[in-house]
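## retry 2 of 3
previous attempt timed out at serialization; input unchanged, resubmitting
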Amino acid sequence: MTRVGVVVFPGSNCEYDAAAAVDAVGAHSEMVWHTATDVSGFDAIILPGGFAHGDYLRPGALARFSPVMEAVRDFADSGGPVLGICNGFQVLTEAGLLPGALQKNRGLTFLCQPSRVRVVTTDSVLTHQSFVGQELSIPINHFSGSYTCDDLTYQSMVEKDQIVLRYVENPNGSRDDIAGVCNENKNVVGLMPHPERSMSELLGSADGKILLSGFVAGTFARH
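## retry succeeded, writing output
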């Protein structure tokens, strides 16, 4: 059974949702406090949503200095699957594990609503069990979720197939409708929508299972 470590920072508030979601698709989740210095015993790592360290300075700016992030970096460098959801995505960009940055939403408005995203690539640890063009209903819940990067970074990401998900209707002003990206090795993914909140049709959508099942499957291989 896949062991998934869910990193908990002071201010995280989606860790139990993330844990329940990966357990529901067949994994075994364990909480990992931000002072941990070794995550090598896990098969995959999730950085969940919330307000790590109160989002002081800017979201993720302080969390990147937590001891666990060096361990997460080592894990990612060794090819381990890492997923950052919402605030976790912000932390990964601040730590330099993903390109670009997340800035305040267009209109400076907090957004908590359903959203639809389209799969751009299946060459990532999150989307390898989906298909290109597949549309998924996954909610968003953020204030600083507008993805941005400079032109050279954007061009490189397009060439290296690092844009994972795009919004069908852009809710926050993200560049090129970007909802999720990955690193060059495709084992580190960050996205602003919350797949752990779309696990049941009774709650509006079970499309999160498509992504999280792939993430914990352990069968991803570079094309």
